[in-house]
Amino acid sequence: MNSLNAREILAVAGDGDGFTHDLIIIGAGPAGMSAAITAMEAGLRTIVLDEQLRAGGQIYRNVSVAPPTVAALLGPDYRHGRDLVDRFAASGVEVHHDTSAWDIGHDLTVTAQKAGRSFTLRAPQLLVANGAMERPSPIPGWTLPGVMNAGAAQIALKTAQQVPSGAIVLVGNGPLLLLVACQLLKAGARVAGIVDTSPASNRARAMPHVVSALRAPGMLAKGLRMLWQLRHAGVPHFKHAESVRFESSSNQQRVETVSFVSQGRSQNLQADVVLLHHGVVPNTQISRLLRVDHVWSDAQLTWHPVVDVWGETSLAGLRLAGDGTSIGGALAAEARGAIAALGAGVAVGKLDAAQAERRAHPWRRQLAKQSAIRPFLDALYRPPEWLIDCPDETLVCRCEEVTAGRIREMARLGCEGPNQTKFFSRCGMGPCQGRMCSITVTQVLAKTLNRAPQEVGAYRVRAPLKPVRLASLAALAHAEPTAATLKTFTKI
After folding, report:
1. What is 155-167 written as a DSSP string?
2. How far apart are CA 8 and CA 484, in angstroms?
3. Cα–Cα distance for residue pair 421/406, rounded to 1 Å
4. How far, in Å, CA of 459 to CA of 404, rounded?
5. Of 283, 290, 293, the residue nearest 103 (C-alpha)
6. CB–CB of 339/364 below 8 Å?
């Protein structure tokens, strides 16, 4: 893999059009790696920028260095990522880890930061594969120490071979919640219970999609195995939970109890750690920054950037792939990444349309197969309505400590969208730049105003997308590219 230090990156010179590459890829998860492999096979000058220290994204985090015991705990789906990472490494693509893209212009100029220094790259094609993030779960007490997202427990297992200590209660719904519970059990953790928040009505909602789901029998069998493992281990499973709260006694600073109502009965579970999960949603920070078209998905209760069959957005040359477009899983992300890279190959003249369509055919088949079960899962694990109908005192914007009641008050005072609400309440102005509250704010406003989320809209996103030091900005001013510096590139 080609590797440059920060000073060498700063010295990259463009061609006559000011382009440094044919294709820039942001993200080295399943979609980004698959796109890079495909682009290199098609002859595109490609560069990959990735925030992590190693390729893999969140789903395959650290898979190239995971000890065999950890890889065994995480299962065959995780181990599949090792093959993809190996092929990515063998492709010869230029990749820069520990690198954050913090601004992107409408001419597709990418400004990024590595080792404390900023630099710019430009290509006629930009592919964003920055994946998904866990849906925020505004439940009373969710800001207490000891309450975290289920994905955080997975990250600790993948990166540090650590599991939470004490009694662990998992709250929410979705396949990942069950997967994390099974992985923690195998790792020796004490899973004290699963509080399933899926409403009873979800089963009826999912029934019309059963026939389509049967096209993915392996995935259905996997889900049934996880449920059997949890039942066999004696883990209490509380269904259709409502009125969920996380509580601590007056002299304690950590979560101690999960209280809820399940099938008409009040329940209290002692908990040292609570893991929350209500599915994942596309990370739309970059697509929002560039003001491309988005639509609200009522099926997945989130925003989807609008893309064509080759992953291109309403901004020419900007392509999105993977779970950053809509949630489909790792194998679907691989297919989308490859298809988007083939579209980029046609756009820069490395492939003709017939070649691209021929190469895309097996990927489209894989995408169709992986997508067959998605409507069933979306319906079966649809987040409950009460998640948005949370009590007024529930914090929605954790950074600025803005409550659901304050957001509803903003709507009653005349704020018609998230940006007005931000202006008057500071909701979304914190360090996370609205990542953790944006969807909730849209939904709360929509319900209060009795409007569709599409009418209410979302936060406007502005650069920088990540914190940038003044010294890093100064590096841009001092960069003087020369073609001769291209000879300083080294291969490792």
Report:
1. HHHHHH-----SE
2. 11
3. 9
4. 16
5. 290
6. yes
Residue 351 contacts residue 345 (beta carbons within 8 Å):
yes
Positive/negative CA dihedral, 99, 103, 107, 109: negative
Are 373 and 52 in contact by the 8 Å Cβ rule? The answer is no
127 three-class SS: strand
What is the distance between the alpha carbons of residues 434 and 431, in angstroms, rounded to a whole number?
A: 8
Q: Taking CA 149 as the corner, what is the angle to CA 454 and CA 267, rounded to the nearest 5 degrees?
A: 100
- Copy the structure tokens of residue 35: 């796109």
Contact 246, 142 (CB under 8 A): yes
**Residue type at position 401:** E
- Overall size of the chain counted in residues: 492
Count CB atoms within 10 A of the CB of residue 461: 19
- Extract long-range pairs of 113-116: CB within 8 Å, 24+ residues apart: 113/466, 113/468, 113/472, 114/6, 114/9, 115/5, 115/6, 116/6, 116/469, 116/471, 116/472, 116/475
What backbone phi and psi angles, to 5 degrees, belong to 469? -80, 155
pTM for the whole structure = 0.92
**pLDDT tens-digit profile of 3-55?**
445 444 444 445 557 789 999 999 999 999 999 999 999 999 999 999 999 99
